[in-house]
Amino acid sequence: MGLYRSKTKNVMKLCEDLIEHHNGQVPTDFDSLIKLPGVGQKTASVVMNVAFEKPKIAVDTHVFRVANRTGYAKGKTPEIVQKKMERYTPLPYRADAHHWFILLGRYICKARKPECWKCPIEQYCEYKEKNLEPPEPKKPKKRLLPIED
Predict the structure, then answer these.
(1) What is the pTM of this model?
(2) Nearest to residue 57, comparing CAs of 44, 71, 38?
(3) Which residues contact 91 (CB under 8 A, 6 or more apart)?
(4) What angle, rounded to 10 degrees, do the helices at 91-107 and 78-88 form?
(5) 114: Cβ–Cβ under 8 A, 6 or more apart, which residues?
(6) Which of 17, 54, 60, 84 is catalytic?
(7) For the segment 24-59, what is each residue's pLDDT rounded down to a tens digit?
(8) Are the beta carbons of 32 and 21 closer than 8 angstroms?
């Protein structure tokens, strides 16, 4: 059925919590954010980075995959990858880094069929199962035209 019911409940609880405990304001510190209903490490990092301009790297599945495959920040959990990425990424690039990793993971370094031949950082990548050959172009299907009498 989807997660909309639990998400709806969390949004309602979040609103109540903000009004009751934070004077209707979104807290500006990370620890307070992750205590809010429905807010985890990734969401809190995005809010800190985008809303409050405090450079954090949010680690979703794309960021996690690319960071591990490339060897940029290897880790078994998103929290470990996030800490390493924040340590290795120079401050001027930190605000946008997770967006770049998301885009690379979504469009090139895909989970099932990575398109390594398109990758701008392929030469630095440590991924052992690189796919450097683009697929053969598909031949168009022959269509039979109806015979007219």
Answers:
(1) 0.83
(2) 44
(3) 55
(4) 130
(5) 69, 108, 127, 129, 130, 131
(6) 60
(7) 999 999 999 999 999 999 999 999 999 999 999 999
(8) no
Site of tokens 């979104």: 26
- Give yes or no: 130 in active site: no
The answer to whether the beta carbons of residues 56 and 25 sit under 8 Å apart is: no
DSSP state of 110: -
Helices (H), 23-127: 30-34, 41-46, 61-70, 78-88, 91-107
Residue with tokens 């949010």: 58
Q: Of these residues, 7, 31, 35, 42, which one is catalytic? A: 42
Name the token pair of 12.
């309602």
Contact 62, 107 (CB under 8 A): no
Q: Of 72, 93, 94, give the one whose Cα is nearest residue 84.
A: 72
42 is catalytic: yes
Distance in angstroms (rounded) separating the CA atoms of residues 118 and 99: 18
Q: Closest by alpha carbon to 44, among 87, 77, 57? A: 57
Predicted confidence (pLDDT) per residue in 86-109, tens digit: 999 999 999 999 999 999 999 999
| Residue 149, pLDDT score | 62
Backbone angles phi, psi at 146, to 5 degrees: -65, 140
